[in-house]
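Q: What does the assembly look like in three dimensions?
Context provided by user:
Components: four
Sequences:
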Amino acid sequence: MDKVKDIVKERLQLHGIKPSLQRMAVMEYLMTHRTHPTADMIYTDLYPSIPTLSKATVYNTLNLLVERGVVRMITIEEKNARFDACMEPHIHFRCRDCGAIIDVDVEAHWIPAMPDGITVEMSETYCIGSCAECNKRKVS
Amino acid sequence: MDKVKDIVKERLQLHGIKPSLQRMAVMEYLMTHRTHPTADMIYTDLYPSIPTLSKATVYNTLNLLVERGVVRMITIEEKNARFDACMEPHIHFRCRDCGAIIDVDVEAHWIPAMPDGITVEMSETYCIGSCAECNKRKVS
DNA sequence: ATCCATTTTTAGAACTATTCCATTTTTATT
DNA sequence: AATAAAAATGGAATAGTTCTAAAAATGGAT
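A: Here is the predicted structure of the complete assembly.
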C-alpha cells in the first residue's frame, strides 16, 4: 500500500540496483527531500529510524546511485557534495548569504558547441547570488 | 623590464590587493599556467623558488583573489577546488577518463531566467564527458 | 635610522568530508 | 541447512582546507 516505496523500489531495480533496506531509505529520502542534502544530512536524518546505519553505507549508496545515473551529484559548494534525485533538466542556484540551494527550471539545458572530438555526457550550470528573501532583508 | 610582473602587479592593485612576493607569485602562476591548477599544484610548483612558502599562504592568497573577483574557483571536481585567472566568459569541460579540464569558449555565458527576486552574481557551466584524445584511444 | 602599529606569512595542529579495510550480517541458491 | 556472494558496518586512514599563535615584513611617524 506504500506507493512511495514502490516507486523507489522500481526506480532502483530499473537501474540494476538491488533494493536493500538502506538503499531504499537513501533513495526515498532524496525523492522526498528536494533540499539537495549532503551525505551527512541524509545520515543524520535516517539514523534514528535505522540505528545500525553506517556512514560508509550512505556514501556507498550515493556513489552507486550516481554511477548508475539515478541521482546527480552537485558540486556547487566546495565543502561537500550535494545530491539530487530529480533528473529532469534544471539548474541550481546557491544563495551566497543564506546558503540555500534552489532549483531553477529551464526548458532545455544549454550545452555549448564543443571542440571537435569531445563528447559530452552531462552538464551542469550553477548560478550564485542572492535569493529573494535575502535581497528583501537587505533593503529593509 | 619584466612585463609579466608589471601586469600581475597592476591586476592585484586594481583590486586593492597589496602585491606581496607570495601573492605576485601565485597570481603570476595562474596567469601563465592555464591548467586550472589545484592549491596543492601551485604550492608544489612554487616551493622550489620560494622555499619559505607555506601552504596556508597559498590558500589565503587564493581565497583573497576569489573574494576580490580576480580569479575564479572551479568546483567541477568533488575532491579539490581548482583555480582560473581567466575571467573572460568561457566554460569548463572535464574528461572523465584522463581528468583533464579544458576551456571551451562561448560567445556569451548562458544565464537562465531566474525566479522573481533572485539576483545572480556569477554562473558557471560544467560539462563532463570524454576528450578528443581519449575518444580516439577508445576506437583503436 | 628607530620605534610602533598593522599586515602578511609561517608551521603545524586541527578539522572535516570521504574512502578504505577487515569483519560481520544479510541475501540468494543449492 | 550449508554455502557462496553481496551488502553493511565501525573504525581507522587519507586528503583538502582552515585555524591558531607566533614570527617576519611593511609602512609610516618621529
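Follow-up: Residues 18, 20, 38-40, 52, 55-56, 59-60, 63, 79-81 of chain A lie near DNA strand C (CB under 10 Å from a C1').
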